[in-house]
Amino acid sequence: MKPIRILQVLASLDIGGAEMMIMNIYRNIDKSKIQFDFVVNDQIQQYAFESEIESMGGRIYRIPRYKITNYLAYKKVWEDLLLEHPEWQVIHGHHTSPAFIYLPIAKRLKRNTIAHSHTAGSGESFKSKLKILTRYPIRHMADYLFSCSALAGEWMFGKKKKIYVLNNAIDTNKFLFSTSSREEKRLELQLENKFVIGHVGRMYPEKNHFFLIDIFDSIYKQNNNTVLLLIGDGKLRSQLEKKVMELNLSENVIFTGIRNDIPELMQAMDLFLFPSLYEGLPVTLIEAQASGLPCVVSNTVTEETKITNHVDFLSLDSSPSFWAKHSLKYVKNFKRENKYKEICNANYDVKENIKWLENFYMKNFNPLL
């Protein structure tokens, strides 16, 4: 029996919340039963997860990025793609901004559809508000509605719809605290005897990196033995590098770019700082807690993310110096611990989530059942 082929629709295959979630599932799902293919926005360079996906039998299809001006062309690409691939009986859409275009096409061609919310907010720009409008019809178009948290589901689909919450689960064992891994990575990065503050995330406005750097500036003024480790990349990187230079912090802020050793990098940290403007349910915050890190987080992030006792929610209205003072309390006398039990009890370990998703796919989409 051939596996069910499910098309996962994403904006990219670089490191991001939705991408890491789906990769955690894809690495562990029973591929004799279920196989994934991917549609993503076209770009010149290779995506971070591209080679790994192809090594597992997944196929990647690049299509033009949707813009209002290419509506008809974008619609035609989807029509042609779905007609060429009748094996995709399930379209699982994580990239929801253009879903109002591809979901009706899939429905007309008698495909099963899932819309999956990974966010609980948007920006204030005209473009952001337009995206909210285009997402509204999705709740009436998709056969099934998924979200990474109750908050993300309600924000995108409303309160009255049936929404399946699929936790942004992780491979917990990869992130459990290891003294040897910590020492090795700190030696590699020349961080011995430093207090290392870390952040993982795309360098986009919602992650609030400029405020994060202001916080670190205040931290550094109070304790110059500190280092900020910024993992990720994005359109704001050059502006952030300029700000760091203007604050004379270049020797104490490390831009790593996109990395495939995030579990080890988290071992090297002493604190996870996460002042996002809005989130769905950030995978990186679950990973940080699995690593035993204390986390200082904006109160715009849903409290559904709080698994351990070391997550502190602060207001974005508070000053950088307030955030700094709160963060520095972890410089002394904090002991990292194994958090496997807490992660599993909160249902954020990938193994249990995969069982649920496999059963959902097989029960609802297997033509032999």
UniProtKB/TrEMBL annotation:
Domain Glycosyltransferase subfamily 4-like N-terminal span(s) in chain numbering: 15-173
GO MF annotation: an example: hexosyltransferase activity
Superkingdom, taxonomy of origin: Bacteria
Span of the signal peptide: none
InterPro entries the record matches: Glyco_trans_1, Glyco_trans_4-like_N, Glycosyltransferase_grp1
Pfam families membership: Glyco_transf_4, Glycos_transf_1
Residue span, Glycosyl transferase family domain: 182-341
Keywords for this protein: Transferase
Gene3D superfamilies reported for this sequence: Glycogen Phosphorylase B (3.40.50.2000)
CDD domains: GT4_CapH-like
Family matches, as PANTHER family: SULFOQUINOVOSYL TRANSFERASE SQD2 (PTHR45947:SF3)
Name this polypeptide is given: Glycosyltransferase family 1 protein
Protein source organism: Planococcus glaciei
